[in-house]
Amino acid sequence: MLTKNKVIKTDIVKYLYGEVSTQEARRIEAVLADNPILKKEYEMLKQTQKQIDNSIEEYKVEPSQSTLNNILNYANRALKKNNRSNNLASAY
């Protein structure tokens, strides 16, 4: 665990993605409030995250129903083949 006043970029990224405890979030917020350089770094990362999220939504592609059916059929065939192999092995 880092000291009360020390925050590194990894902490900022974790904070940005909500991957810190409430106590750690408060500590990071306090450090950001007192450190304009880190605050600027946080704001830049936050803007980058927003741009990435927007890009993902803009170019989001859903697989076709045909593709999903092919995947499910393949999985079912593999499962049946595996079950037959297990049944043969247990017969001996």
Query: What portion of residues belong to β-strands?
Result: under 5%
Shape: elongated
User: Gyration radius, to the nearest Å?
Assistant: 24 Å
N-end to C-end Cα span: 55 Å
List SSEs in N-to-C order.
HHHH
Alpha-beta classification: mainly alpha
Number of domains: 2
Kindly state the number of beta strands.
0
- Share of helical residues: over 70%
**Average predicted local confidence, pLDDT:** 84
Low-confidence stretches: none
Question: Main β-sheet: number of strands, strand sense, barrel status?
Answer: none
Q: What's the total helix number? A: 4
Explain the layout of strands and helices.
Layout: H1 9-16, H2 22-34, H3 36-58, H4 65-91
Helix pairs in contact: 1-3, 2-3
Describe the structure.
It contains 4 helices and no strands. The longest helix is centred in the C-terminal third of the chain and has 27 residues, at 65-91. 10% of the residues are buried. The chain folds into 2 domains: 1-61, no CATH class; 63-92. With 92 residues, it is an all-alpha fold.
Short description:
The protein is mostly helical. The protein has four helices and no strands.
Relevant terms:
92 residues, mainly alpha, 2 domains
